[in-house]
Amino acid sequence: MKVDVGQFACSNCEEVCEEDGDLRYCPHEAADFCDVCFDDTHFTCCVCSESDCDSVQHEMVVIFDPEIVSGEGITAGVYKVMGTYFAQPIIGIGRIWGSAIERVADLPEDADSAGYPAGHLCRECQERITGD
């Protein structure tokens, strides 16, 4: 989208902002987002509550409610993602495939589900939890 000199536009919705500080930059996508689009397209870590755009979020998943997982023997905890792990139907709740995740840690005490059955971790929390 073409904007006037001194204006800035969201890479997602193309809303024009007067101040560069009105946008949030994602270095992994090399793009600027307004607050609404950033929150809609990026995740919030379920441990530290920081919003992030790092694709590392899909390397692990935090399971709060094992009912969302197809397969047996899955309990609440932190899991490493081994491949495609999530399917979302057009109607209803998505499922996580138990065969695509591997348990690496217990559910962190400071994790907050925010009402969701599963969540993601930022890079720093992943490293803290796994020791890597």
- What's the β-strand tally? 13
Cα radius of gyration in angstroms: 17 Å
Strand order of the largest sheet: 12-9-7-13
Helix content: 10-25%
Instruction: Name the poorly predicted regions.
Output: none
The helix-strand sequence is EEEEHEEEEEEEEEH
Distance between the termini: 41 Å
- Beta content comes to 25-35%
Taking the sheet with the most strands, its summary is:
4 strands, antiparallel
What features would you describe in this structure?
With 132 residues, the protein is an alpha+beta fold. The protein has two domains: 8-41, no CATH class; 43-130, no CATH class. The chain is 11% helix and 28% strand. Strand 10 and strand 11 form a beta hairpin. The longest helix is centred in the last third of the chain and has 8 residues, at 123-130. The protein is globular.
Feature tags:
132 residues, alpha+beta, 2 domains
A few lines on this structure:
The protein contains two helices and 13 strands, in the order ββββαβββββββββα.
Helix and strand topology:
Layout: E1 8-9, E2 16-17, E3 24-26, E4 31-33, H1 35-41, E5 43-44, E6 51-52, E7 60-63, E8 69-70, E9 77-81, E10 86-87, E11 95-97, E12 101-105, E13 118-119, H2 123-130
Parallel strand pairs: 8-11
Antiparallel strand pairs: 1-2, 3-4, 5-6, 7-9, 7-13, 9-12, 10-11
